[in-house]
Please model this.
Amino acid sequence: MDTGFTLSWIDYAIMIVYFVFVLGIGWALKRHMKTANAFLEAGRAMPAWVAGLAFISTNLGALEVMGMTGSGAKYGMLTTHFYWIGAIPAMVFLALFMMPFYYGSKARSVPEYLKLRFDEKTRGLNAILFAVMTILASGISMYALAILMERVLEWNFHLSLVLSAAIVLGYTYLGGLSSAIYNEVLQFFIIVFGLLPIVILCLMDLGGWSGMKEQLAPIVSAKGFAPDTWTTTWKYTGTASANPMGVEWYGIFAGLGFVLSFGYWCTNFLIVQRAMSAESPTAARNTPLIGALPKMFIPFLIIVPGIAALVLLNKQGSGFTLPEIAPGQYNYDYTIIALLKQYLPAGVLGLGITALLASFMSGMAGNVSAFNTVWTYDIYQSYIRPVTGNKDADDRHYLTVGRMATVFGVVVSIAAAYLASLFGNIMDFLQTIFSMINAPLFAVIFLGMFWKRTTGHGAFIGLLSGFFVALLHHGLTSPLGAATLVKGGWIYHAYVYPVEMAQNFWTAIFAFTTASIVTVALSMITKQLKTDDDLKGLVYSLTPKFREEHVRWYYRSSTLAIFVLAIAGLLTILFW
Amino acid sequence: MGIDIKFPIGLMFTILGLLITIFGIMTNTDVPMYSRSLGININLWSGAGMLVFGIIMLVFSYLTSKAKK
Model:
């Protein structure tokens, strides 16, 4: 298939207006960036709605948009498990039970929380891993952007790479975390307005939801599933073979709903940083809850068009195709691009392309702004140049370091992007490693927050053993038909999962369980080096209960949480 | 921190909304162009939607700055 587009002047005009605003926001913030705190932590002054939208926007990178639309075609509404049972409960948990400690402890990052709660080595391990992974992720995001621009718009690969890096560097260097957050809010709205026309047009084209369902039935039956598998969520999860994800309900529940999602949403500093930038403890708690409200409806924006694409692919005369990897095997990553091309005339097309560009860049900016904080506070300040005590001079110094880290982060990202262009599998590899780090980290932070006996040694060894078991499980199992060792099975083929997703879920479950058991066991036999006084504000039982009686009832976290869970429950029942 | 984000959001969507709406009006008679979007002038609808959103944001931003004073 020809994936190319011809853009007209109006499309370019829309793009230019957007980028003028992106850089303009950075410029407007420049004069406020006088301290390291303002630059790296947004001065802890963000209103909850801004932090909340940035919170989900960071996660709504282009890889997510493209991936989830593709998953919509591959797995149908089952993909919503990533949202309604995955993200939402985790976000509610983060808000109610974890934010009070992250925010209240005055830690400036997740690694710093580990230092306060456990010890230096646990912080060091997490900080270094996080810094390396974040920069690699940023580079891969840039690579994906440049390759897309090359294939779709026929722009020069190197030029797109350098230009997008320059824009990201421009606004993050000028305005730091605030600039990244504000632009994420802008990006959120651009994505909604850019993708909404596709959703509306493809549903109208197929005769609405019921029309789409009707046309799906023969296609899905031909694949060997029940006719309504693609439009239901839990109905066919009784046995793994009855649904395209190849996972049973308890695998989804424990793997995705608990370990993977809690690991991602509750411990990933890239995400948590947004909530930590909020203006007050109440705002910090409400940030993930306010983010959860639009988050629940994102499946309709990106998964539903993917399902429609499956119908179009099989419909005579629709003219819709996807590029093929092998004969009869489509590259579903291109689903959203193909839909843009199918339905959008000049004008809204420019808006759609801008939305994709925006989500790529904010993904990069998010990574860079998390990297520079961890680098400055957790690595540079801890191991290279500690605070001197002269507050003003320190502040100026760390601001400069933060700025330099931003430049460094972008430059290394470009290098990582070229690395990714050399090794095609690096993205899969990185995602695999990320899931191995997050699950044990969640086990350790969770135990640390709710069990005051948890010790530093226990946490450190717990993290390492969780990671080790994840590696081992990955080395011993592989998804069906895996062609490369990156997908697993590099030690021995002990077990073959029907699909890759099932393997990922179980890797995380094993890692989490091991990390929990080891941390608990070692905490029992090692000495707790922290006194109860040290742990005040860091552990549940030693922290005064979060009070919100003074807050208006509709703005209380408890009210919002009930509201969020009720809507998520309702959506689940509607699409059962 | 420092700025009210509602203002740039409002301003940008007002500008983009106007741009796309005007483009939609200019191309309203271009039937082949809109055959893709099922014969609907999607630019006009999208542009109008963005314009309304932009203006609402600007109004909120104005109210915020007034309340602060």
Summary: Chain B has two helices and no strands.
